[in-house]
Amino acid sequence: MIEKDIQVINQLGLHARASAKLVQLVSGYRSEVMMAAKGRDINAKSIMGVLMLAAGVGTVVRVRVDGPDEVACMNAIEDLFNRYFDEGS
Amino acid sequence: MRRAIQGIPAARGVALGRARVRMPLMLEVERETIQPDEVEAEVERVHDAIEFVRAEMHELRQRLHGALAHEIGEFLDLHALMLDDPELLQGLDTLIRTKGYTADYALRKQRDRVAHVFLSMDDPYLRSRIDDIDQVIGRLHAALHRRDADLQGVAGDILVTDAVAPAEIAQLQAQGVLAVVTTTGSLLSHTAILARSLHLPLIVGATQALTKINDGDVLIVDALEGLVICEPDQTDLTAHRKRVDAFKRERKQLNRLRREPTRTRDGVDIKLWANAESREDIAEAHGLGAAGVGLYRTEFLFLGTHEIPDEEKQFNAYRDAVLGMTGRTVTIRTLDLGADKSDDTGLALRDEPNPALGLRGIRLSMSREKLFEIQLRAIARASAYGPVRVLLPMITSREEVLYAARLFDRVRKSLAEEGVAVAEHIPLGAMIEIPAAAIALPTFVSKIDFLSVGTNDLVQYLLAADRNNEALGDLYTPLHPAFIRMLSDIVRTARKAGKPVAICGEIAADEAFTPLLLGLGIEELSMHPGSFLQIRKAVREIDHAQLVQSSRALARAKDRASIMRWLESRTA
To answer: Which residues form the PEP-utilising enzyme C-terminal domain (chain B) (predicted)?
Structure first.
């Protein structure tokens, strides 16, 4: 199990489009992915869960990945956040 | 115990029956549990429904192309992810397995659990995502019942709910619902207009209906006075029978006007056109002596289907309408999708930030020229079977009129080259339903052959008041001096140019407004044939010369109160 704090840096935060991208990404991995922010703990493979995080720009999200491909998965997640979810900024 | 609930009568009629209560934003479900040996079958039902919806969405995704694919695609992706959501799916399984819930009830439980979280969020964007979830859940619920689709037990009942969509009203009537009572809504909503034309008694704004009425209660709906009586006593039942008789007598008296002309007391003939979209409407319009069809809506060809109708399908529908009117003119309005009329073909953008100000009517047609061309071809071909006119919705400017006229010319030429018979002259008209069109009318009135004023939208846009927003209540009204002045200007411009102008919209079919419209110089009204006799009766009671005389003050009225006073003095 690996755990990391990642900050939301894209302007719009985890709104519908970014959330959809995140869920699509982590669903491709076998590991279990949990995310926590603002006192809420959610399954990152659930779109409703990710939306419920309501994580705007600047929010720090605690990401927990547990499973056979956890390292690759965590890297991919970090990469997506740092690429501003491909939204430019 | 007897309870009386007051609302606003939106479609006349009376009914007696049992209440069928549909709670808002929740699924209508039986609160039954199932036997242990039925659990696996119920779980399977859920999974079948999910598969069905998934295929349905996939199919919709496949049909999208261009900019639409991008815009709508994003929402479809979001919805598809919701369908795959492990929280939602496993949650359902668990609820059915551990609690013995039915699939429907489990679905509702899940929806409510999620809704609770979303609706408590401060961020309005996230709060509104509940709409996406509701859409997905709604689709799932429909899929669960795709075999027994006709809402069990609604026939012979009175639906009590928060709101009813326009598309649903027709379905409810077809299913045999006796009357509808809603807690929200306004007199001038599309739903109300539709209910009136379908003769389905409707009471809106009965705010206490959901708290005071229980499923199965006996109700008397008096949609003449706007009164709902729950668990009526003997006195109520006697009064109800009297009202039913009075209503029948009223109908009978009207029926005597079937063969009479629509003529004022002093001999001015008023043209009554029919708004129509079905064979039944056409037949009814024909039988009631309509001047022709003033507004043939074509949206129905695009609604309730997943396919954009091809030229042949459109041609057949238009030709049948033309043949059905046996030589009387049929005015075919080109596609007017958008706002509260979203389709299933993915053509209209459901998720526009402001659909009423969005890509609808002629704008949608212009953005999809091929589609527009196909529709114009189908209309031109139908013109070989009888007189046809083309009406363009949502016009804002001369450019749009010229664009449509050019395209229509091109279409007719190419049909002629193909050797297809087309009428020599097909009049082109503009719908005036946006203030810009009314103001710019002098710039393009010479380019069109006739005008049709869509008052519902014109009032809405002129006053910046959504007619479906009950919070605005009184703000949406055709009795605003600005509207009366605009209408009077339209009539004057049209008359100067020698172009006929018809009024289509709610007020054309409402006898309370007949003196107002005739007073302003309108001589053509277009409405659902269901309102013909009522309007004919109103017209026949009018002294036209005197009305026109006294209406000069009307166009100069300073406030709504004086317009109302004038109108009341005419109808009294």
So the answer is: 252-543
ipTM of the complex in this document:
0.88
CB contact under 8 A, B87 and A46: yes
User: Chain B contact for A34, CB < 8 A?
Assistant: no
Q: Residue A51's closest chain B neighbor by CA?
A: B126
Sign of CA dihedral B296, B297, B303, B308: positive
Which of B77, B85, B123 is opposite residue A48, by nearest beta carbon? B85
Nearest to B126 among A17, A47, A54 (CB): A54
The average confidence (pLDDT) of chain B is 86
B470 vs B204: CA distance, rounded Å? 10
**Closest by Cβ to A47, choosing from B74, B78, B123:** B78
Residue B500, C-beta contacts closer than 8 angstroms, at least 6 positions apart: B450, B451, B494, B523, B524
As a whole number of angstroms, the distance between CA B56 and CA B28 comes to 22
Q: In whole angstroms, what is the distance from residue B264 CA to residue B139 CA?
A: 52
How many whole angstroms from its chain centre is CA B199? 14
Could you tell me if B126 lies within 8 Å of chain A, comparing CB atoms? yes
Report CB contact under 8 Å: B81, A51. no
Q: What is the pLDDT of residues B175-209, one digit of tens each?
A: 789 999 998 877 666 677 678 767 899 999 898 89
B319 contacts B359 by C-beta, under 8 angstroms: no
What is the pLDDT at residue B5?
Answer: 95
CB B447, CB B399: distance < 8 Å: no
This prediction's pTM: 0.57
